[in-house]
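Hey L., structure's done. Input below.
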Amino acid sequence: MTYPTNRSATWFVTGTSRGLGLDLVKELLAGGNQVAATTRSTERLLAALEGVDTTGLLPLEVQLTDQDDVTRAVETAITRFGQIDVVVNNAGYGYLGAIEETTDEDVRQMFDVQVRGTWNVIRAVLPGMRAARSGHIINISSILGLVLFPGWGLYCAAKYAVEGLTESLAAEITEHGIQVTIVEPGYFNTDFLTSNSLALPGNTSDAYPAIREMVQAHQAMPGTQLGDPAKAAAALVTIAQRGNGPLRQQLGSDSSGFASSKVAALTADIDAGRELAFSTDYVR
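Output:
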């Protein structure tokens, strides 16, 4: 186990002024933990935490796509708290539109935030964790990092990349005593599907009416999602405390069901394609 048992834990959490990140900060502070919370607006974060005891909070305004800025934030957290025990790479946003409707800027921005930002944090925290031979990196993916739906192609592509990055990371650092977890939430009752967190293409095509219907359905969904974000925040604490869970952890009954369906579909494809796969080997 890498989670400290003789002192409060120190968490470094990105994307904390809204959604799951905000609920996690509240959960951690209520549990007496120390939290370095990154956000694009510390003013918005502190306003969202009004009435909460913020004694253990270090709010940090950070541009996650700037490696130097991320490194400074990590160093500031270590100076304040001594070391970082758990990292949660949570920052991100959604994008709902057809692949044909995306622009170069849409693609660049999505991968900058979801992939490059996560990569920057990992590179900044690993030297300290390796030196301590402890730590836990939790990367928030999505069930859309494992399955896919039409209209979510850009978001899925970024989350698939996060999953590949995280799985490789887990294999690389296991000998250094550092735990790694991919978390795959389903639909949770946060503002993820509101205009605050869900981007749409600037120009759309009449060729994709089903996606326009999907956009409308998702915009009407807030408040009806199955998942309780406060329970998701508590689950993240459980993941860190137990320290020896599965590499992938779904959150939400919907996420678990989608994952099971994905495994069944992948197994069926492998079985159906086995003869052709084997036929491409040299005959020796």
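DSSP finds eight helices and nine strands in the chain. Residues 11 and 35 are 5 Å apart (CA to CA).

-- N.
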